[in-house]
Write a structure and sequence with these properties.
alpha/beta, Rossmann fold, 6 domains, five-stranded mixed sheet, 21 strands, coiled coil
Length: 1004
């Protein structure tokens, strides 16, 4: 036979195996089957269809008799039209193992006319059956013989069966005779014939049960409409159920007889099967490659993609290729482990490829069963797992190429993101590789380096490490010093945003940065060496002197530092201070005024005034001391003049007291400390509060002023006063200065002022930076980030950072209602630009809605976990805030619904997930229907019970209770009547007693 013909035969056998597996499919609830065996043309197919109630079978005239025909083909003839599950055809012999593994009962069919006319018809059937069944004893009670096309004629059926029994006994006796010969060939055949015939001749109620007739029709028509055929079919089915015993089958119960030529082809067939497994493995590899391609194309994070390829995809492939043949393990077991490993790895990595897991896996398992079958015929047949895994070769090449490429991209990305290149980018804007890192400054910003196959290796050596990483992130260097030098006005705040790495390589300190609030947000920070940010408040100037010293001015409030990062390099290299400025010193109190000197006494002031006897004294305003006082007065006996001579020491007026010193001004209040907050988004609850806890640093108090010196008493004079009065004609007086004199007395000095005491109109420091403004900074950063996420390479890390900011527990506490409105405003302003760049905005709105709900839920119950929310929910305008939040929620929810209903280019539909959901819904519906039926029955039963109870209650109320009341009334009446009767009898008895007493008295 030519190689081509051999190949065709092997392929035909292999295809028949596949076709048989597709056609002979059994429901899980009907795994046990009955095998029908018979010689060609014995009517096996017609009989099986008859038992299965095929309503297309009908009887029609044919050659003076009747024959049975069906819809698809004419039954009968001498060539079998049935490929599956016929057993005894040359090529088909090899394919039947798989199809008989589930046999529980066996039906033998034989043409009744040939049974009687041909001596070899039944023995041939027995011979094939014996070669097929290894242990006839086990199955002898599970075999039913059907004589098909039985034409009884006018003979009774019982007599017809007796003739069959006699023929069977004759076959049995022939086998017994053969066994007497010690050199008999095929001893097992004759022993099985005896066992089989004995089993077929079993009687029940004087009737043979283990062989039956499938009669020839005598009338035209459909078989299922002919009463006799329908009744006989039911009887046959009943015999199969009741009289023919099912047997628990083992895989080695059946054997096969194949030709030597077929055995020679087994090795080739085994090779074809192993190659088919390899081909199927290749299909799986193709499916996985397409899956990985889709994942790679959809990826927006080259770093994560590189890690996935190295640590997931390639590791998975290594495990899949680790398949080894084990001793004493069946081919099917090896393949089952191989397929299970494929399924487990796909489940582990959540690879949803149903075709791979179901259809291809099942086909590979079928091939394993084919190899096991061939091994039963030829034990040398083995699996070749080393050839199966070759189907993964193309996938292996693809993943390794992808691994190298993305290692290359990540290395380039990291290289061009390094500080040295970012700081001196102009050195790398070159046109020749040799100038890399040494480029000269040029105004031509369009210069690009030209990389080609000739200078590629040279460029690799330049950039180190040895994989070229093109730069995808446009990282900007902000030269802070130049920015501040160019600024003419005071800067209140500084926002530094980065999309990749923020390099901190300069100090922020000095007067320009006093009180400046700084916000730094970037996924990665790198502190170069050691640097500091000194955002302390400034100190205030000394005030001028005043009466009472005024309080010092307040110190400057420090700026705040707010930083958000995902990774920070050299964290200890950055020093942050936000101390409030020292308060200004209070004014010194003013010195008290010197008191005025007292007025000098001059006799000129009184020389024209006389001292009147009526106490008119011109010296009354001055302090005086009388040193001589002599008066000559006339009397009646000696009339004459009145002469008065006095000498006075008259002092000058007292000086004024000195003025009090002014109180020293109180030292100015220290400025408020700023806050320092560092938040790591990689950990949802990680935040570091470095705010200084020092108290405010007040300024030095002013010194109280000195009290003023008292005024000196005025100078005095010693004067004489002479007064001569001789009435009525003479009245004259004179003042004469004797001398000047100075007492040297001074008035009291003023009191000294009190140090650091005057706080009148003292000023408070300016309020510190409000925390809710951090939310505004975060919103600005999110807007800045979203502007740059249309690049697929940068998109992944940026979206991840955005999501981490959204969901960080501490960051959410920086928001209040105004902060949330500001975020929505920014998102809406960017909406059309983002849509235009095919950015999926739905996740941003969904995240925002979630945070609005969290904000309300965490604070609406009065437990204000967010201190800024407390102002919203406890203020006089709290109802306005609640309405605003309701509006915010409704607006965003409407937006989300709109986005979900519009078919956008980036919409992804999980069809499998959708169908799974539908399937679950149907199952739930079925369960719901059952539950509804149960509930309806329960409700109906409950209603019936309630109606019965109501009827009973009505019967009791309308019948029983009324009757009881009537009986009760009658009883009451009878009791009352009985009581009246008793009372009457008691009275009568009392009357009798009285009469008896009277009689006793009379007799006495």
């Amino acid at each position: 036979m030519s190689n081509k013909n051999q190949t065709d035969i092997i392929k035909k056998v292999f295809n028949l195996l596949k076709e048989g597996e597709e056609k002979v499919t059994l429901d899980q609830n009907h795994r046990d089957i009955i095998l029908v065996l018979g010689n060609t043309g014995s009517g096996k197919s017609t009989f099986v269809q008859y038992l299965n109630e095929n309503k297309t079978l009908k009887s029609q005239p044919w050659g003076g008799s009747f024959r049975i025909v069906g819809n698809d083909r004419i039954q009968g003839g001498f060539t079998s039209k049935t490929i599956f599950p016929e057993l005894f055809l040359e090529i088909k012999t090899l394919i039947m193992t798989v199809l008989v593994l589930r046999i529980r009962e066996i039906i033998l069919t034989v043409d009744s006319s040939l049974f009687f006319s041909s001596r070899n018809e039944f023995p041939n059937l027995v011979e094939h059956t014996s070669s097929f069944i290894k242990d006839m004893t086990k199955f002898k009670e599970s075999i039913l013989l059907i004589l098909t096309k039985a034409d009884i004629g006018i003979q009774k059926e019982k007599d017809y069966k007796k003739d069959i029994a006699m023929s069977l006994i004759e076959v049995k006796e022939n086998s017994k005779e053969e066994l007497k010969n010690p050199n008999v060939q095929n001893k097992k055949l004759h022993e099985d014939t005896i066992k089989l015939v004995d089993a077929l001749l079993v009687q029940k109620n004087d009737q043979y049960t283990n062989f039956q007739l499938f009669k020839k029709p005598k009338n035209e028509g459909y078989l299922h409409l002919i009463d006799s055929f329908e009744q006989e079919r039911k009887d046959l089915v009943n015999i199969l159920k009741e009289d023919i015993r099912f047997v628990v089958k083992n895989n080695d119960d059946f054997g096969f007889t194949i030709s030597d030529k077929s055995k020679n082809e087994i090795n080739k067939l085994s090779k074809v099967i192993n190659e088919d497994i390899t081909k199927l493995t290749g299909y799986i590899g193709d499916d996985l490659r397409k899956y990985f391609e889709a994942r790679i194309h959809q990826s927006n994070d080259i770093h994560k993609l590189k890690d996935d390829i190295e640590n997931k995809y390639i590791e998975m492939l290594i495990k899949l290729k680790d398949v080894k043949l084990k001793e004493n393990v069946s081919n099917l077991k090896v393949i089952e482990e191989f397929v299970q490993k494929i399924n487990n790895e796909m489940d582990k990595h959540q690879i949803n490829l149903s075709v791979v897991k179901e259809k291809r896996s099942e086909t590979i398992l079928n091939n394993g069963s084919y190899l096991d079958f061939l091994k039963t015929v030829k034990p040398e047949v083995t699996s070749m797992p080393e050839t199966w895994v070759r189907g993964f070769d193309e996938l292996n090449r693809y993943l390794n190429d992808s691994k190298l490429w993305y290692q290359f991209l990540v290395a380039l990305h990291d290289k061009l993101s390094e500080y040295e290149i970012q700081k001196n980018r102009k050195k790398y804007i070159v046109t020749e590789v040799t100038e890399w890192g040494h480029g000269k400054q040029s105004e031509d910003k369009t210069l690009k380096i030209s990389i080609n196959k000739d200078n590629f290796n040279q460029f690799l050596k330049k950039v180190q490490p040895p994989f070229l990483p093109p730069e995808y992130n446009d990282i900007s260097q902000i030269e802070v010093e130049k920015l501040f030098n160019a600024t003419t006005s005071d800067i209140k705040s500084l926002k530094i945003f980065g999309l990749n790495t923020l390099f901190i390589d300069a100090d922020l300190s000095g007067q320009k940065f006093q009180g400046v609030s700084v916000t730094c947000i970037s996924p990665r920070w790198e502190i170069r060496d050691k640097h500091k940010m000194v955002l302390d408040g400034g100190s205030n100037l000394l005030l001028l002197h005043g009466e009472n010293g005024r309080p010092g001015l307040p110190g400057g409030t420090a700026g705040s530092f707010f930083g958000i990062y995902r990774e920070i390099v050299n964290r200890n290299g950055l020093k942050l201070t936000t101390d409030g400025g020292k308060g200004g010193p209070g004014q010194n109190g003013g010195d008290g005024r010197r008191g005025d000197d007292g007025e000098d006494f001059k006799y000129d002031k009184v020389k024209d005034q006389k001292i009147d006897i009526n106490n008119q004294d011109p010296l009354s305003d001055y302090y005086k001391v009388i040193t001589n006082d002599k008066t000559i007065e006339p009397d009646i006996r000696n009339p004459g003049p009145l002469i008065v001579d006095k000498t006075f020491e008259v002092w000058g007026k007292k000086g004024l007291n000195g003025g009090n010193g002014g109180d020293g001004g109180k030292g100015g209040e220290g400025g408020y400390n700023g806050t320092i907050n560092l938040i790591n988004t990689y950990h949802p609850n990680d935040a570091t509060d470095l705010t200084p806890f020092r108290s405010q640093n007040a300024g030095e108090g002013g010194i109280g002023g000195k009290g003023g010196a008292g005024g000196k008493r005025g100078n005095g004079e010693e004067v004489k006063y002479h007064h001569y009065i001789h009435k009525p004609f003479i009245d004259k007086f004179t003042w004469t200065k004797v001398k000047d004199f100075n007492i040297g007395e001074r008035a009291d000095s003023g009191k000294d002022g009190v140090n650091n005491s005057n706080a009148q109109n003292i000023q408070s420091p300016s309020k510190p930076f409000e925390h809710f403004q951090f939310a505004i900074d975060i919103n600005n950063y999110k807007g800045y980030l979203r502007e740059d996420i249309n690049d697929r390479i940068k998109q992944g890390p940026l979206i991840t950072f955005h999501q981490e900011i959204d969901h960080h527990h501490i960051i959410q506490f920086t928001y209040n209602t105004l902060g949330l409105f500001d975020e929505l405003h920014g998102l809406e302003n960017q909406f059309h630009d983002l849509i235009g760049h095919r950015v999926d905005v739905l996740p941003f709105y969904e995240s925002f809605l979630e945070r609005v709900m969290n904000y309300v839920n965490l604070n609406a119950d009065g437990q204000y976990s967010n201190p800024y929310a407390q102002e919203d929910f406890t203020s006089a305008d709290r109802n306005s805030y609640k309405k605003a939040l309701s509006y915010l929620y409704t607006t965003v929810l409407s937006k989300i619904w709109s986005l979900k209903t519009i078919k956008t280019p980036f919409l992804i539909v999980d069809i499998r997930g959708y169908f799974n959901l539908i399937e679950e819904s149907i199952e739930l519906l079925e369960k719901a229907k059952e539950q509804v039926a149960i509930n309806q029955y329960k409700n109906q039963y409950k209603r019936d019970i309630e109606e019965n109870v109501k009827e009973a209650e009505t019967f009791i109320k309308e019948k029983i209770i009324l009757e009881i009341d009537r009986i009760k009334d009658e009883i009451d009446k009878k009791i009352e009547s009985l009581i009246a009767e008793i009372v009457k009898l008691i009275k009568a008895e009392e009357q009798n007693e009285q009469d008896l007493r009277k009689k006793k008295t009379r007799f006495r």
